């Protein structure tokens, strides 16, 4: 990516990709610098805001910044399910369950095969005390991903609710 940037120093995509690489390699300050540069070069590049927002949530637990950046990504691309999903996670982390639920609902409307969205919405329903809705979501997540990590978590959550009598 350094070569891509040297060949085209105005490439927001190259800076974004380099930021993602730095983040996965735990070079967090470099990642944030690259995300900021991608946004500077591409102020209407929704994915850059989404990635920086995700960075703030995952690596800094700065959910206010994650919400801000994911909201900006959504304003630039209202059909961006991942931005709704991550903003929903940030709201859930802040215990703003009604907003989290709204974002997970939108994620599912835009990406109805997203098992993680059903699993996470199920967790949100559980925290809100709506166990019937949680069970439906966990069941759907398991159906969509019966052999994967998300399906396994959903199955475990479903079994926990059933053992509790729900």
- Characterize the overall form: elongated
DSSP strand count: 0
Unreliable stretches = none
The tally of helices reads 10
The fraction of residues assigned to DSSP E strands is: under 5%
Indicate the multimeric state.
Answer: single chain
Gap between N and C termini: 51 Å
Backbone structural class: mainly alpha
Largest sheet properties: none
Mean pLDDT: 96
The radius of gyration over CA amounts to 18 Å
What is the percent of helical residues? over 70%
Q: What's the SSE pattern?
A: HHHHHHHHHH
Describe it:
The radius of gyration is 18 Å and the shape is elongated. The protein is mostly helical and 166 residues long. The chain has helices at residues 2-7, 12-24, 28-41, 46-60, 63-76, 81-93, 97-110, 115-127, 131-144, 149-163. The chain is 79% helix and 0% strand. It is built from 10 helices and no strands.
